[in-house]
# Entry
Amino acid sequence: MKFHLAQINIAQGKDAVESKTMKGFVDRLDEINAYADQADGFVWRLQSEEGDATSIQAFEDPNLLVNMSVWKDIESLKNFVYKTFHVELIQNRDAWFDKILNVHQALWWIPQNTTPTIQEAKEKLEHLQEFGPTQKSFTFSKSFPQPK
# Structure
């Protein structure tokens, strides 16, 4: 069986996505999502009918944004996150997002041709928070190989 890499990351918006505070971030979403859709190794991303995930409320706090995607491997995701213009969003995140003290990103392997659910992803964040990186849920800095 082959596997793909699933990821979730959450971000605590400083204000509602419709606000002036979040405009710089929201204005880049179509561009960054279109680029992701064409990136090497990209498989799937969570999105609403509008084409992004900002209206998907995965948590009680409406300003807690969720991003989920699936990639062929860790290298593909890492390349997209850190070696494309996506890094500009990371560098400017303090303008739009408050620091989250708990785990805010988790990676895990899923069988190819499956899609992770929001509930599954939330469980991966909780597992990582409680146990640290394991084969079940891990990070870029402490990753685990695809299951055999």
About this structure: The domain at 3-131 is CATH 3.30.70.100 (Alpha-Beta Plaits). The two ends are 8 Å apart (CA to CA). The chain has five helices and five strands.
